[in-house]
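User: Here's a structure from my thesis project, written as structure tokens. My advisor, Dr. K., wants to see whether a designed sequence matches the one we expressed. Can you design one independently, without my sequence as a hint?
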């Protein structure tokens, strides 16, 4: 034996066992001095008791002059899916679900009044409707036209205070694709009699009820230039009848946009028009002249062109070190088309863009006793674009386009220690894996991500099993109305105890050999 080394021999099986004091080990095999790390809450070696995990910060403090290689990547091998299903206004290159739009046009006598440029109200309304139809998709969308006046002044072929114009007239269909033929039907409308507005909405409801279906957004664009003075409904006043029929629209999932048209709002009942729109989730507009009426129709066209999409929230991770370093995420490949922002001289790219060429990661070195802190930010988006990616819910058959942010601007939400949970080997992860944390149908499950990794596992009681130098860092983003938004990172520092092989520690010199006869 030598100082610090004790050897025992066993004649019974002709073996030897050597005990080597810690200080006699070469540095590469001395876990007190090398880069082997154990982040677990109950390390077997006392020298790893100085690993600190607090909030969103990890620190390894062995008390030696080590530099540790660090690598951070998403646990999931799939693209990030932080976001929610919602309306994305102004998104470019987006194809929404096909729509059914019913125009309800006031054909009362006052529509013959001149409004501007020697044009009558009726001619101005006809022009605005035709401009609107030009914004629709002729291969997907459908449109219909309802006129209303009074029973005594109805067209010869109509049978009520309001009527449905067929295309082609008079024996065609209620709902048809946008076309010149439909525009010709619009030009057939006339001005006559009183203002049976509620009857007009009733006929629009009939069209949607008979000819539309739940897979197509149902929309009514309702124009009036005067106070309602007939309704075609027994036992209700003219304005009350309109509100009752708006309730029916809401029950059919029909959205009503109303327009008051005249030189002043005193020419019609603005309160009723606002109520009709409000009850159905639509909007009210006032137009005082032909130019303004065109603007209103185009505004409504843009509003109904918005589609419910899977909007990927723009976000970027931000790691900081104890010496003040800022570590932005890196994505291999061409990232010129990805949204990004600059903070503190560092470029932070949108890591949640489904068109990114690869997953993001962080790779850096930490000195002994130097901490790393995990933060992230979400950002406002100034420009949404469709990706061409479509996700379909297998349970319902509904399909949604995926939209990405092409221009992220100011920070919207900052994730800090209150939004971060860190798990290490042996930790109970039941809170993370619980059924209450199930994501939306279009999001990956943490359980699936673990199943797809060979180096991370959990038992039936949700206790984690991973390498000693690994941790799961869970960033808890604000949830959407229909989604659970979490980013789970796999953090790795130094070497794992399992990967450290203590080879070539002892040289054995044989001096005496005894050969048994």
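Assistant: Designed independently from the structure alone:
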């Amino acid at each position: 034996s030598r100082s610090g080394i004790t050897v025992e021999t066993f004649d019974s099986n002709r073996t030897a066992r050597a005990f080597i004091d810690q200080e006699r080990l070469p540095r590469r095999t001395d876990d007190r001095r090398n880069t082997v790390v154990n982040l677990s809450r109950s390390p077997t070696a006392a020298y790893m008791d100085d690993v600190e995990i607090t909030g969103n910060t990890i620190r390894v403090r062995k008390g030696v002059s080590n530099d540790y290689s660090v690598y951070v990547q998403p646990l999931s091998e799939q693209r990030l899916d932080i976001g929610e299903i919602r309306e994305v206004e102004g998104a470019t290159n987006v194809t929404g679900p096909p729509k059914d739009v019913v125009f309800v046009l006031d054909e009362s006598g006052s529509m013959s009044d001149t409004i501007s440029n020697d044009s009558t109200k009726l001619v101005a309304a006809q022009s605005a409707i035709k401009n609107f139809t030009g914004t629709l998709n002729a291969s997907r969308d459908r449109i219909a036209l309802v006129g209303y006046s009074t029973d005594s002044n109805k067209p010869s072929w109509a049978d009520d205070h309001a009527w449905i114009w067929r295309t082609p007239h008079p024996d065609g269909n209620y709902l048809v694709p946008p076309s010149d033929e439909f525009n010709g039907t619009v030009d057939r409308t006339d001005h006559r009699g009183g203002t049976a507005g509620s009857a007009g909405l009733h006929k629009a409801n009939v069209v949607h009820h008979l000819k539309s279906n739940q897979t197509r957004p149902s929309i009514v664009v309702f124009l009036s230039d005067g106070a309602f003075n007939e309704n075609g409904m027994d036992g209700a006043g003219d304005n009350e009848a309109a509100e009752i029929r708006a309730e029916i629209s809401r029950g059919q999932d029909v959205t009503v946009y109303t327009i008051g048209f005249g030189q002043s709002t005193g020419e019609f009942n603005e309160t009723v028009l606002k109520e009709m729109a409000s009850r159905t989730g639509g909007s009210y507009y006032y137009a005082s002249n032909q130019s303004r009426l065109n603007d209103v129709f185009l505004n409504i066209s843009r509003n109904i062109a918005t589609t419910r999409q899977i909007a990927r929230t723009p976000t970027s991770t931000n790691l900081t070190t104890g010496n003040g370093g800022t570590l932005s995420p890196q994505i291999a490949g061409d990232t010129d088309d990805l949204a990004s922002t600059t903070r503190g001289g560092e470029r932070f790219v949108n890591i949640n863009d489904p068109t990114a060429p690869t997953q993001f990661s962080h790779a850096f070195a930490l000195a002994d006793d130097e901490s790393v802190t995990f933060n992230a930010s979400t950002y406002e988006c100034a420009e949404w674009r469709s990706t061409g990616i479509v996700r379909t819910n297998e349970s319902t058959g509904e399909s949604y386009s995926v939209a990405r942010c092409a221009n992220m601007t100011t920070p919207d939400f900052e994730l800090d220690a209150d939004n971060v949970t860190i798990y290490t080997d042996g930790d109970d992860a039941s809170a993370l894996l619980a059924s209450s944390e199930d994501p939306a149908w279009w999001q990956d499950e943490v359980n699936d991500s673990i199943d797809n990794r060979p180096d991370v596992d959990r038992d039936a009681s949700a206790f984690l099993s991973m390498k000693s130098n690994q941790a799961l860092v869970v960033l808890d983003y604000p949830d959407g109305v229909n989604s659970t938004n979490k980013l789970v990172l796999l953090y790795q520092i130094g070497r794992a105890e399992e990967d450290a092989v203590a080879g070539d520690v002892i040289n054995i010199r044989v001096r005496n050999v005894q050969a048994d006869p």
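When you compare it with your expressed construct, this may help: The chain has a mean pLDDT of 88.
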